[in-house]
Every structure is written in structure tokens, then in C-alpha cells.
TrEMBL record:
It comes from Amycolatopsis arida. InterPro entries: MFS_trans_sf. This is Uncharacterized protein. Residues 54-71 have a biased composition (Basic and acidic residues). Keywords: Membrane, Transmembrane, Transmembrane helix.
Length: 170
């Protein structure tokens, strides 16, 4: 039914914009709901290493010594499965800050050449609807638009994880 309705909207005069907007909204809501659904089902977010099987031996056999795991040097980063929620949140926020710095520097460079979509959206004045929905010019402007969307999804994903981890501890 949803595909049929989107197809009918897409064939209408200006309905293709509403069809695309509806599809984008469904994808965004689905992305937000995935994290909540995975936690509710009880699936771990990061894989956990399976325990080693117990070695069976008889009384007349000498048990073989188990190999020792190498000890990690001090200051070595823990694996994801042994990380606490606070450590994982701190790592995710650090990564997000790095992504933000890269995004701002990259968009600044694109703005110098006149192809930064967020700068154009904020300071460029009123635009036609095709400017947002359709290919609006140079390929660098389209790259900037896609990069902005990716940065927004990264922001929602990172801060959603931080907030859900904090909420789960309460």
C-alpha cells in the first residue's frame, strides 16, 4: 500500500516532492527506531567473544596447560566488549567531535569556492524548491549536500547512543 501511494504521488504534478519527503521521513524514523528495537529485544550491540569450552580429561591423563593470553600493556585501549558504557560514550563523542571538525573545515573550504550547501542555505537567501530537492548545479554543491546529510545522521546516531546508554543506567 505504501509503495502504491508513493507511486501515485510521484506521478502527480508536484507530488514527487511529497513522495520523496515521505520516504526520507520513513527512513529517518526507521533509523531512530532500530537502536531502541535492538535494545528491547536484548541483542548486544557489540559482539561478545564466546567462552572457551571446558577441557575434558580423564584421571590417567595430565591436563594440558591452557595457553595464557598476552597481557595488554598499561595504557592499551580495552576491547569493545569490555568497555563500560561511559568509556564507549566518551569514545563515541570524541569521534563525533573529530567528524565535526572535519565537516566544518571541509565545508569552509567548499564555501571559499562557493559550493558549500549549508552556507548557501543559511546565507544565500530564498531559493526555489528545486534547489533543495533536485540537482541544483555544480557537483561539489551536491557533494556538500550529501555530506551534510551524512553528518546529520552521524550526529543523531551518536547522541542517540549516548542518551540511550545514560537512560539505561537509571
Amino acid at each position: 500500500m505504501g509503495t502504491f501511494a508513493a507511486g501515485q504521488l510521484y506521478q502527480a504534478r508536484d507530488g514527487w516532492q511529497w513522495a520523496c519527503l515521505g520516504a526520507a521521513a520513513l527512513l529517518l524514523l526507521g533509523a531512530l527506531a532500530v537502536r531502541v528495537a535492538v535494545r528491547r529485544v536484548g541483542v548486544s550491540e557489540y559482539p561478545v567473544e564466546p567462552p572457551e569450552p571446558a577441557a575434558e580429561h580423564t584421571a590417567d591423563q595430565d591436563p594440558k596447560p591452557l595457553p595464557r593470553e598476552p597481557e595488554s600493556p598499561p595504557g592499551d585501549t580495552p576491547t569493545r566488549s569490555s568497555e563500560s558504557g561511559d568509556a564507549r560514550n566518551a569514545r563515541n563523542v570524541r569521534n563525533w567531535v573529530g567528524h565535526c571538525v572535519l565537516f566544518v573545515v571541509g565545508q569552509g573550504a567548499l564555501a571559499v569556492f562557493g559550493y558549500s550547501w549549508p552556507v548557501e542555505a543559511v546565507f544565500g537567501g530564498p531559493h526555489e524548491a528545486e534547489w533543495i530537492w533536485n540537482s541544483s548545479g555544480h557537483w561539489l554543491l551536491n557533494v556538500s549536500r550529501v555530506w551534510t546529510l551524512i553528518w546529520l545522521v552521524d550526529t543523531v546516531w551518536t547522541w542517540g547512543a549516548v542518551l540511550l546508554t545514560r537512560r539505561a543506567r537509571r
